Amino acid sequence: MHQPNYQALVKKLVSPDVADQMAAKMILIALDEDAINPLVDEYYAGITDAEGIAILGVLADIGGYEALAVLRNVFDFEEVRPALRYAAAQGLLRNSDKLTLEENQEITLYLAEQG
Questions:
Q1: Which 8-state DSSP code applies to residue 99?
Q2: Which long-range contacts (CB under 8 A, 24 or more apart) does 17-24 make?
């Protein structure tokens, strides 16, 4: 199987064409955990807020230990781009069954404070 072009898929995630968005998301989710490291590479290579939010959303959809570790890292340490921290918090909350009670409370409080 050939390697997907992750940069192109990330661009399609934020395309004005909803069909492109859905197709890219479906491909990435189908790749499951194989998509995590390449998506993280794209995230840290430099992306727009919209692309970052989309990547974090796909990571939340994939779930699993590695994806949640990335979401936790962004939530815990992102200080410059609040939209990305907010998206990470939302992604973590979508996986609340895999979080500790303390994490759930911290994230719920953060989201409530952000409005």
A1: S
A2: none
